[in-house]
Design brief:
The complex is a heterodimer. Chain A is mainly beta. Chain A has strands at residues 3-6, 9-12, 18-24, 32-37, 44-48, 52-53, 61-66, 69-74, 84-89, 95-96, 100-104. In chain A, the strands form 2 sheets. In chain A, strands 2, 4, 5, 6, 9, 10 and 11 form a 7-stranded mixed sheet that branches. The radius of gyration of chain A is 13 Å and the shape is globular. Chain B is mainly β. In chain B, 0% of the residues lie in helices and 55% in strands. Chain B contains no helices and 11 strands. In chain B, β5 and β6 (59-61) form a beta hairpin. Chain B is globular and about 40 Å long. The N and C termini of chain B lie far apart (39 Å). The chains are: A mainly beta, B mainly beta. At the A-B interface, β5 and β10 of A face β10 of B.
Chain lengths: 105, 120
């Protein structure tokens, strides 16, 4: 299953909303996770089951979608949220999207 | 809290075998609820699942790497390992170990990663 993320880069001002998209080449139901990765660090699980926040993840992060279309929304960007974000399906082995970089506008 | 730490050589020669170990602290590899995974990230690129192993010894590998990969668990030392055979420059990457729940193949905790370069 191929995972496609868009846009590749998202320029957002602090305090604004960011909306990241992830599309699967075939249905993954809700077997979709989102990760955040900062330079030189390991990815951090944000969302699993398409919409369930992982332990300790702030409420400003929310996930939605099912089937082939998914969205990660960051309601009000904080300085620490500027990072790379990856989606990953886990209905058929594990595959990651190419990532979306959220940068400061 | 469960913590993972990768270890192994940072430089491997072409055609040789890449061997990495992931040491687990704050938890047990013997848990039936978890699986233990390896993921890699080539420089400037995205994430690639290599495979994962269960405490029972069952393994699942990425089909693109399956012919060159072996994963195993070392229960007495609470660690698991990766072996990647016949490496080339395309295997140069940061290698992460990670853990997931058996109920869903997402990865809830990761090691910090270790950089491996394949070069003569």
């Amino acid at each position: 299953i191929v995972m496609t993320q868009s846009p590749a880069t998202l320029s957002v001002s602090p305090g604004e909303r960011a909306t990241l998209s992830c599309r699967a080449s075939q249905s993954v139901n809700v077997n979709l996770a989102w990760y955040q990765q900062k330079p030189g660090q390991a990815p951090r699980l944000l969302i699993y089951g398409a919409s369930t926040r992982a332990t300790g993840v702030p409420a400003r992060f929310s996930g939605s979608g099912s089937g082939t279309e998914f969205t990660l929304t960051i309601s009000s960007l904080q300085s620490e949220d500027f990072a790379l974000y990856y989606c990953q399906q886990y209905i058929n082995w594990l595959t990651f999207g190419g990532g979306t970089k959220v940068e400061i506008k | 809290q469960l913590q993972l730490q990768e270890s192994g050589p940072g430089l491997v020669k072409p055609s040789e075998t890449l061997s990495l170990t992931c040491s687990i602290s704050g938890g047990s590899i013997s848990s039936d609820n978890n699986y233990w995974a390896w993921i890699r990230q080539p420089p400037g690129k995205g994430l690639e699942w290599i495979g994962h192993v269960y405490y029972s010894g069952s393994t699942f590998y990425n089909s693109s790497l399956k012919s060159r990969v072996t994963m195993s668990v070392d229960t007495p030392n609470n660690q698991f390992s990766l072996r990647l055979y016949s490496v080339t420059a395309e295997d140069t990457a940061v290698y992460f170990c990670a853990v997931g729940y058996s109920s869903g193949w997402f990865l809830y905790n990761w090691g910090q990663g270790t950089a491996v370069t394949v070069s003569s």
